[in-house]
Task: inverse folding
């Protein structure tokens, strides 16, 4: 587990601020040099970039070896996502920082600047007390981060707690309208079904309509304030979405602890659609799903609480009948309605998907096939994670297989 906490310092003298600004400037120049070298030449690996830049940067800037290596790693890490580097964060590892106590008993942070160590007095505020609480709970400081405004963050690390295999399963189906949840016991009984996050979808649609109006006004009136309002509104939408995602994750974790269940989610890739792949309305619905951030937040929170997270295949979760196991596209009548064409089972499609996620996580379907051997036929056992739809057939006669149980 990893976490970052704010570490506030008392007002610094101009000499200390100058030394920190010098360190930041050296780190920024080294990072920009590495990034430009990657862009202009055919550097194939981070090791090759290290050989090309290490001695030059050590001789030119005179900084610690760890900062030279960190600048190279930073530039290599953003080579595919950034066009240029204007701002950086300077990370001081365990060799470059230490927490000390002054003669008067006040805490201080010592960091390695370009030429010498600099002692920074720490403000004993809520951030410092929170750091002490985490250190007392078993967290360790892995590094200290300095931002461009000379503010500091502390990166904490703690070993993952021992996870206990829970007998029940909480299936989560993340979709455009809501988050469908089904809790299923080890014996196959549905304990609870509910929907969460309907307000998130409605608010995102409201944000999009407002943003469309601001964009249209900005494009037609070049001297208007619509551009600035659009930036503020986009930031407001992003903050609301992230805050609501963390709240949803908190509700899911509470349900998992209440019913002693592990959490199962779909393994989705290439979720976002581009223009021309789907219709405009369907594309908007899918693209507004915050699947990536929800999964990140869920994994982060579950690790802290000792809850197991499982991922299952997303294939046909909303087209598989949970009663008779029929997989057919015709079962999905429309965006919300599910009705099996064989047994007539009908329910909300998202609820069916969450139930199938529970089944795939809670049951490893066992299939059998009659395989002829000398002395008679025996059963061959196959473990499948695709919901039991894969069966073994006789290698020659194509004898039909059946699902155990």
Result:
């Amino acid at each position: 587990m990893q976490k970052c906490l704010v570490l506030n310092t008392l007002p610094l003298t101009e000499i200390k601020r100058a030394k920190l600004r010098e360190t930041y400037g050296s780190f920024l120049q080294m990072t920009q040099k590495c990034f430009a070298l990657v862009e202009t030449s055919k550097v194939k690996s981070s090791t090759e970039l290290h050989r090309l830049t290490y001695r030059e940067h050590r001789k030119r800037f005179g900084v610690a070896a760890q900062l030279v290596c960190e600048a190279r790693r930073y530039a290599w890490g953003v080579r595919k996502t950034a066009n240029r580097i204007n701002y950086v964060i300077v990370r001081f590892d365990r060799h470059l920082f230490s927490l000390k106590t002054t003669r008067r008993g006040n805490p201080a942070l010592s960091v390695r600047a370009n030429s010498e160590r600099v002692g920074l007095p720490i403000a004993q505020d809520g951030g410092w007390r929170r750091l002490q609480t985490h250190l007392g709970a078993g967290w360790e400081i892995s590094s200290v981060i300095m931002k461009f405004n000379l503010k500091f963050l502390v990166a904490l690390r703690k070993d993952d707690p021992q996870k206990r295999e829970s007998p029940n399963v909480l299936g989560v189906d993340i979709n455009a309208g809501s988050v469908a949840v089904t809790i299923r016991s080890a014996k196959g009984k549905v304990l609870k079904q509910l929907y969460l996050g309907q307000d998130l979808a409605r608010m995102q649609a409201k944000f999009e309509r407002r943003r469309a109006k601001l964009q249209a006004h900005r494009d037609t009136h070049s001297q208007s304030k619509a551009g600035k309002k659009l930036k503020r509104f986009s930031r407001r939408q992003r903050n609301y979405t992230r805050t609501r995602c963390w709240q949803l994750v908190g509700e899911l974790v509470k349900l998992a602890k209440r019913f002693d269940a592990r959490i199962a989610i779909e393994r989705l890739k290439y979720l976002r659609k581009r223009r021309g792949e789907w219709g405009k309305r369907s594309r908007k619905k899918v693209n507004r799903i915050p699947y990536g951030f929800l999964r990140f937040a869920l994994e982060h929170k579950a690790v802290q609480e000792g809850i197991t997270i499982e991922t299952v295949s997303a294939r046909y979760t909303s087209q598989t009948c949970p009663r008779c196991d029929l997989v057919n596209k015709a079962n999905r009548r429309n965006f919300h309605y599910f009705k099996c064409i064989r047994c007539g089972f009908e329910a909300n499609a998202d609820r069916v998907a969450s139930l199938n996620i529970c089944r795939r996580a809670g049951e490893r379907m066992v299939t059998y096939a009659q395989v002829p051997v000398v002395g008679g036929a025996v059963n061959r056992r196959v473990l499948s994670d695709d919901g039991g739809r894969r069966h073994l057939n006789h290698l020659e006669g194509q004898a039909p297989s059946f699902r155990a149980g």
Observations:
- The two ends are 40 Å apart (CA to CA).
- The longest strand covers residues 365-373.
- The chain has three domains: 2-157, 168-361, 365-403.
- The first helix runs from residue 14 to 40.
